[in-house]
Design brief:
Length: 626
């Protein structure tokens, strides 16, 4: 794994993103760690180091071990803070932050997680930074709970060290480094549940703590329902009665039914769209047996659970009951990860696919603590691999721009961002995030072009694309796009107005004129577009038409603000369209505030008497006072 990681880091074009993350480390350091690992994994060396480590821990007094472990936890929290992620493109971080900033308190799929972060963000003062801080604090806290839980549940010194070292090699450790998403507590609670449930299994009981951990795990994220088969197995293991099995199956079925009802009625998603289709369909070329999906699954496992390859040891060397227990823990999570559709791309959605991490880490720990000598023999190699894999992953996420560049490259080749995948819908949110937080307008244009290719009738995307060309510095591209496509959106006043404004600001007055006149002639006499067309005519020097359009727009605009109407009619007067100005002022006279009626009445009389010198002075007074 380490060798492939180093080689893949030198060849990012391979797309082995689950294992090439050591590329975040300097090349000499990568090579040095690899050489050290190769030496450490040699049987004589690994046995010698393993025995020395095991002996030193065994001889350590329990009181000293508690002190050292407490120091380890404090140092770990310090590392969580020091190397916090600056990359919120992983997962749906920007989306969940946006929801909480917008006041969302409840999420059907992760109710407790949203509620916790909302309450904490509110306590921190609210706003974007408070929401971000709430996720960071919870991530650090989750890491402390994870390490504390290992100490409380495993108890033996050797077992605790084995557990911590094995966990270090898994990419899910990223959750504790200020990660922004709803899967952090899911991972911790699932892991602690499995450790507690395994202890219950050996004692033929079902403890309150085990049940509580499962309920909390499901409450923090419904995907934790993959653990339901394990609680059924615990019930069977304790009671061995048909009635107990019927009750447990009934309760489990009820839990699953409620979860599906929750998703179906409360969540804005369709249940069938959660999963990867078995075969390609008109909306989705990304299917269960496609090379893209299979490669994504491999990468996802390599990133989150690289030591999954050691599972065969844990399963093949167990007795029958232990084997069934381990399979029941792991299989549902693996099936879920294989069947779920990572809609924002497997690399960005790695946290969703990491559901297998908790059971795999727990099973490996359970396996190796039964044979501590073998476990300690591979402790040093695992630590060295962790320095390559996990620290590379954490280091890579720490850099805002560096992380973005890698994600952007992967997005370009990801089927979830192609025009064939639900008409390129994923590019909408992607382009919004990139525009706001990265200002990479070249990428914004690429994403919006892909969406336009899949859904050319999406008027909002088309308007955004036109303006993105301008932001990119491609004014000719913007004008060409609008001139070639505005007919497509002729029935949408918002699109016509937006695209027309863009052409107007770029100086394409005749094209803007044609667009507005076509809309007014074929679709609707809209007062807003009349005013816009008036501005175009004015710029073209057609003042008679411009003033007539302004006047007609206010006739149609029944509830126009008095200030707007007065301003236009005074402009008409100043442009020497006296009769038009007089007629307009007479139309709005009854709606004028009392302090304006007298001067406007005098102005109307002066115009009617052709006393323009007096009218000029009245206009000056009105403008000065208003």
């Amino acid at each position: 794994l380490a060798l492939i990681s180093v080689i893949a880091s030198l060849n990012p074009q391979w797309g082995l993103w689950g294992l090439d993350l050591s590329g975040a480390l300097p090349l000499p350091l990568r090579i040095l760690i690899l050489i050290a690992l190769i030496v450490a994994i040699l049987p004589p060396v690994s046995r010698k180091f393993g025995q020395a480590l095991e002996t030193s821990i065994a001889k350590m007094p329990d009181s000293s071990f508690k002190i050292y472990y407490s120091i380890l936890v404090i140092l770990a929290i310090g590392l969580f803070i020091l190397f916090s992620t600056r990359n919120y493109l992983q997962g749906d971080g920007y989306n969940v932050m946006g929801h909480l900033i917008g006041g969302y308190v409840f999420s059907p799929t992760e109710p407790l997680d949203y509620l916790l972060h909302f309450a904490l963000a509110k306590a921190l003062g609210g706003g974007e930074q408070a929401v971000l801080r709430s996720y960071q604090i919870c991530a650090y806290l989750a890491g402390a709970i994870f390490l504390g839980g290992i100490f409380l549940f495993l108890r033996k010194k050797q077992d605790i060290i084995i557990a911590v070292v094995i966990a270090m090699a898994f990419g899910v450790m990223q959750f504790f480094f200020g990660y922004v998403e709803s899967y952090t507590f899911r991972f911790v609670l699932m892991f602690l549940y499995i450790i507690s449930a395994t202890r219950d299994l050996s004692e033929r009981r079902i403890s309150f703590v085990t049940v509580l951990l499962l309920v909390l795990a499901i409450g923090f994220h419904l995907s934790s329902l993959v653990l339901i088969p394990s609680i059924i197995y615990l019930i069977w293991n304790k009671y061995h009665t048909k009635r107990a099995m019927i009750y447990s199956l009934g309760l489990s079925g009820l839990a699953l039914t409620l979860a599906l009802a929750d998703i179906f009625f409360l969540a804005p998603i369709r249940v069938l769209q959660i999963f990867v289709p078995i075969i390609a369909n008109v909306n989705n070329p990304y299917h269960l047996l496609s090379n893209d999906h299979l490669f994504d699954i491999i990468n996802g496992f390599l990133l989150s659970t690289p030591l999954m390859a050691l599972l065969w040891l844990g399963i093949s060397r167990s007795d029958k009951s232990s084997t069934w227990w381990k399979v029941i823990l792991i299989a549902p999570a693996v099936i879920f990860a294989v069947l779920i559709d990572p809609k924002i791309g497997a690399f960005r959605d790695w946290d969703l696919l990491s559901i297998t991490a908790a059971p795999i880490i727990a099973v490996l720990i359970i396996t190796f603590i039964k044979n501590p000598r073998a476990a300690f023999a591979i402790m040093v190699p695992i630590i060295l691999f962790s320095l390559l894999h996990t620290s590379g992953w954490i280091s890579w996420n720490r850099y805002h721009d560096k992380a973005y560049q890698k994600i952007r490259e992967i997005v370009h080749s990801d089927k979830h961002y192609s025009s064939e995948y639900y008409q390129g819908y994923g590019n909408k949110a992607w382009s919004i995030i990139i525009e706001r937080f990265y200002k990479d307008y070249g990428e914004v244009v690429r994403a919006e072009e892909e969406r336009f290719k899949g859904a050319p009738d999406d008027t909002l995307n088309a308007c955004n694309l036109a303006y993105s060309y301008v932001n990119k510095g491609d004014s000719s591209g913007a004008s060409d796009f609008v001139r070639n496509n505005w007919h497509r959106y002729l029935t949408d006043i918002g699109a016509v107005s937006s695209m027309g404004s863009l052409l107007f600001n770029l100086g394409y007055y005749h094209d803007t004129e044609q667009m507005y006149e076509t809309y007014l002639a074929k679709v609707n006499q809209d007062y807003r577009l009349m005013q816009d067309l008036g501005a175009v005519k004015e710029r073209l020097g057609e003042m008679d038409t411009a003033m007539a359009l302004y006047d007609q727009s206010l006739i149609l605009w029944k509830d126009a603000p008095i200030e707007t109407a007065i301003s236009l009619y005074l402009k008409e007067y100043e442009m020497k369209y006296y009769q038009m100005a007089q007629a307009g002022l007479e139309r709005i006279y009854s709606n004028l505030p009392f302090d304006l009626r007298a001067p406007v009445d005098q102005l109307i009389r002066a115009i009617n008497e052709h006393n323009y010198v007096r009218a000029d002075s009245i206009v000056s007074i009105i403008r000065k006072n208003n």
